[in-house]
Each structure stands twice: as structure tokens, then as C-alpha cells.
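We were asked to recover a plausible sequence for a given structure. The inputs and outputs are reproduced exactly as logged, with field labels preserved.

PROBLEM: sequence recovery
POSITIONS: 375
GIVEN STRUCTURE:
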């Protein structure tokens, strides 16, 4: 990573799209619409009397997302430096509104959404984006004193702590994990002293363990993760049916629309566990195709970060790429029984407007950074 003198902001041209990144994302979005319909048709028919209910909404989100991607692609990424504190403030206000405004919407035993009329928004998704912009700005600005504990480390951890407290009130432990990991990785990339990162991690680990074991339901969830077959009727239910879906898929899958676990056995098949439906209906070949598309996105994102002309662009591209990668890896890890259930969507594939729109905006910004770096 390198820092250079300020480069004048220029509006990018309408050409020079990174086609590998763009088409990988569009393929995933297209596959997502198809799989959302396949995974949700039975649920939609029973709940709304119309099997295309979720697929039509996801298609609308996709169209809006493409517009947002194009808009963000043509906004010079340095503009976000000016608005990083505004974005941070909006994220904090939205997280507060979930718990204290009366607009909070409960689903699945947690209040993680704001509902205004028919519009539902998940603020934690936006908070992750705002945190990436803030860290990219702050870390790039403080490079001369980045090794000082009070300058390079503490301010970023304080912001992380405030967000973590607000998100824990929902509760949404999965988002806290991603936000914490993302902050640590970006601070490492931003040259914060490794001693500060490692030492603080060691001090926080006992607190995290204490948090996990101070409630019976968390202990039970941890035990069910270690051996889900001992809890087939409650905490191990999701993982067992997810693994059954993958096991049934074999090499080529049961066929599109022919999955069995989505028929009221696998919870949230069109959101948290859509990867399981893909494994059952498209088999190992479908799963590998999805992994290939995500790998292309991560490869192009890291390449864009490495080629950026300034440190802010490098850290912004790196943070957006890592955020997408972490969320995808954690979701897949949960569906495969490698990680405890977290309640996270799979970027570009799972049903959910906020997740899709934020992900598409992130890709638009990556495309803009890549275009400017190619000049």
C-alpha cells in the first residue's frame, strides 16, 4: 500500500468497467433471484397465497441495486472522505432507532430491522459500510502517528465498541463478529502496531468467553454446534437439515425446484440457508460455481486495492472486499456446520433488500476505485 500527494478529483468515464468483477456480481444476483424463488415459493404460497412473492421483491431489489451500483461507480470515491462522519452518525442513529424509536420490527426472535410502512431496513448492514469508510479515512489520515496507541488504535476501537453495544441490544451477535473482525483486519492493513492488536485481542478473549457462558441458551447453542445430533429438535435442528440438504445434492443436485428440505424443514431457506438449497438442488457443481464467482470478486477487489493510487482508496477497496468476503464465508460456514448459527445473509444471493443494496453499492465503489487506478 502506498500514499501519494492529493490527486484532483475527476469524474470517471462511462467505460472501463472491470468486466470480471461486474459480471461475477451480476451472475450471482441472477442466480440469487432464481434460487430465492425456488427456496421461497412454498413459503410464499402458504403465507401470501402467491408463490412469486419473494422472487418479485428480490427482482425489484436487484434492479434498484444495479442502479445504485452504476451511480456509485460514477461518484469519485474520494467524495466519501468528506462524508465519513455523516455516514457514521446516520448508522448510529439508525441502530438507536431499532431499539428506542418504536419503529423496530421483530422477526426470528430478534429486533434487527426498522419498518416504515411496507419498507423494512436492516441498519447493521449500513453500519458495516459506514465503519469501512470511517476506518479507511481515519487510518489513512493518521499514518504519521499510526503506531501510537492513543491515535492509531483507541479511537477506532471506541467507535467499534459503541456500534457493538447498539447491535448487541437487538441482539445480532453475527454482525458484531463481522464488525470486530473487519475492524481488526483493516487496522492491521492500515499499519496499526501488531502489539496493540494482539495484546488487546488477548484481553478481550476472556470477556468473549464469559459472554458466551453467562447465559444458558448460549451454552446450549454452543453445545449444539459441537454436536448438533444431540439436539435434533431445537438448537441442532437448523444445522442437521442444512447438512441433509447438502448430502442429498450429491454431485449434480436433485434438480432446480426439486429440493425437499426447503419444504418447511429448513428454517429461512431463502435467506440464511439459501446456500443449503443451492447445495441440494444444484449439487457440488453448483456449489463450486458459486465459490468460483465469489473468488473472482475477492480477487478483483484485492487487486483494485493493491493498484489504488492513494492509501484511502487502498483501504476503502480492501475493507469493502473483506466485508463481502467475511459475510460470505461466515454464512457458508454456518450452513456447512463449521460455525455456530449467526443469522447472516449470503451476499448477492439471499433474499433481503438492505443486504443486496449495500453490497451493490460496495461493488460500485470498487469499480470506481479500479477505474481511477487504471488511468
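RECOVERED SEQUENCE:
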Amino acid at each position: 500500500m502506498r500514499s501519494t500527494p492529493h490527486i484532483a478529483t475527476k469524474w470517471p468515464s462511462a467505460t472501463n468497467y472491470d468486466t470480471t468483477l461486474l459480471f461475477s456480481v451480476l451472475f450471482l444476483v441472477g442466480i440469487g433471484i432464481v434460487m430465492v424463488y425456488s427456496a421461497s415459493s412454498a413459503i410464499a404460497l402458504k403465507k401470501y397465497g402467491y408463490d412469486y412473492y419473494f422472487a418479485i421483491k428480490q427482482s425489484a431489489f436487484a434492479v434498484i441495486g444495479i442502479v445504485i451500483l452504476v451511480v456509485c461507480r460514477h461518484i469519485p470515491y474520494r467524495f466519501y472522505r468528506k462524508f465519513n462522519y455523516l455516514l457514521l452518525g446516520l448508522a448510529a442513529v439508525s441502530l438507536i432507532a431499532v431499539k428506542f424509536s418504536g419503529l423496530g420490527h421483530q422477526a426470528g426472535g430478534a429486533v434487527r430491522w426498522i419498518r416504515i410502512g411496507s419498507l423494512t431496513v436492516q441498519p447493521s448492514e449500513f453500519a458495516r459500510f459506514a465503519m469501512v469508510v470511517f476506518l479507511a479515512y481515519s487510518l489513512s489520515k493518521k499514518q504519521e502517528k499510526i503506531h501510537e496507541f492513543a491515535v492509531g488504535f483507541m479511537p477506532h476501537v471506541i467507535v467499534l465498541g459503541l456500534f457493538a453495544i447498539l447491535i448487541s441490544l437487538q441482539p445480532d451477535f453475527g454482525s458484531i463478529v463481522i464488525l470486530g473482525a473487519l475492524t481488526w483486519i483493516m487496522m492491521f492493513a492500515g499499519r496499526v502496531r501488531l502489539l496493540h492488536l494482539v495484546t488487546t485481542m488477548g484481553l478481550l478473549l476472556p470477556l468473549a468467553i464469559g459472554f458466551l457462558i453467562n447465559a444458558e441458551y448460549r451454552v446450549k447453542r454452543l453445545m449444539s454446534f459441537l454436536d448438533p445430533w444431540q439436539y435434533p429438535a431445537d438448537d441442532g435442528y437448523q444445522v442437521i437439515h442444512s447438512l441433509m440438504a447438502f448430502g442429498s445434492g450429491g454431485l449434480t443436485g436433485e434438480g432446480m425446484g426439486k429440493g425437499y428440505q426447503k419444504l418447511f424443514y429448513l428454517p429461512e431457506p431463502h435467506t440464511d440457508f439459501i446456500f443449503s438449497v443451492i447445495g441440494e438442488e444444484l449439487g457440488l457443481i453448483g456449489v463450486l460455481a458459486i465459490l468460483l464467482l465469489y473468488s473472482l470478486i475477492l480477487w478483483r477487489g484485492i487487486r483494485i486495492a493493491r493498484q489504488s493510487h492513494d492509501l484511502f482508496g487502498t483501504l476503502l477497496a480492501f475493507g469493502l472486499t473483506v466485508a463481502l468476503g467475511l459475510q460470505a464465508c461466515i454464512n457458508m460456514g454456518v450452513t456447512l456446520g463449521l460455525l455456530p448459527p449467526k443469522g447472516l445473509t449470503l451476499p448477492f444471493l439471499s433474499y433481503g433488500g438492505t443486504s443486496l443494496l449495500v453490497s451493490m453499492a460496495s461493488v460500485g465503489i470498487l469499480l470506481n476505485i479500479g477505474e481511477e487506478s487504471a488511468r
